Amino acid sequence: MLGLDARKEHVRDAKLIRTAYGCRNLEFRHADVRQMDPKDFGTFDVVLMLGLLYHLENPIGALALAKALTRQVCLIETQVVPNLTESIDWGNYQSQKEMYGSFAVIDETEELAIPESSVSGISLCPSREGLLWVMRKLGFARVEVLPPPERAYEQLAAGKRIMVAGYVK
């Protein structure tokens, strides 16, 4: 099992926990999802993106990377924003395009020192519909929102955060 994080202190902490629990089959590396090449890591039966997607300025690129690393299923936990759908003028009023979801621009520059926030300060947070649409377009064979468990965390229970499974086969 391999864990990756953009913050060196998270990798150091994970290694300490691994040692404390004697888990010899865990490996942790410092890596930034914005600069990763999937060829450097191989593929995995399960890929987890937990609390990451909504802290990135290029969430679609990160989803494409996750798809490239996944053999069976990618599980994503993310904050979501309200959805926008309608037709918009695309170049001129006679050319209409459908919107299938939305991404909100979030400013995290004030939180850069917080270890759980963005490493760049610019974040794009998807709507539920936008995330599902993008995952399908990237080639996940099946995409489903997982129901929150009983007594789930308030945002998960309210649908402001979601867990999504993207299956490759």
Strand order of the largest sheet: 3-4-10-9
C-alpha termini separation: 21 Å
How many beta-strand elements? 10
Overall mean pLDDT stands at: 92
Q: pLDDT below 50 for ≥5 consecutive residues: which ranges? A: none
Shape: globular
Q: List the total number of helices.
A: 4
Task: Return the structural class.
Answer: alpha/beta
Helix content: 10-25%
The helix/strand order is EHEEHEEEEEHEHE
* Gyration radius over CA: 17 Å
Count up the domains. 2
A few lines on this structure:
This protein is α/β, with parallel strands linked by helices and 169 residues long. It has helices at residues 8-21, 59-69, 128-137, 154-158, and strands at 2-5, 27-30, 44-50, 70-79, 87-89, 96-98, 103-107, 122-126, 142-146, 161-167.
Explain what you see.
The mean pLDDT is 92. The protein has two domains: 1-31, no CATH class; 43-167, no CATH class. It starts with a strand and ends with a strand. By secondary structure, the chain is an alpha/beta fold. α2 links the parallel β3 (44-50) and β4. The protein has helices spanning 8-21, 59-69, 128-137, 154-158, and strands at residues 2-5, 27-30, 44-50, 70-79, 87-89, 96-98, 103-107, 122-126, 142-146, 161-167. The strands form four sheets. Strands 3-4-10-9 form a four-stranded mixed sheet. Strands 1-2 form a two-stranded parallel ribbon. The radius of gyration is 17 Å and the shape is globular. The chain is built from four helices and ten strands, in the order βαββαβββββαβαβ.
Outline the fold blueprint.
Elements: E1 2-5, H1 8-21, E2 27-30, E3 44-50, H2 59-69, E4 70-79, E5 87-89, E6 96-98, E7 103-107, E8 122-126, H3 128-137, E9 142-146, H4 154-158, E10 161-167
Parallel strand pairs: 1-2, 3-4
Antiparallel strand pairs: 4-10, 5-6, 7-8, 9-10
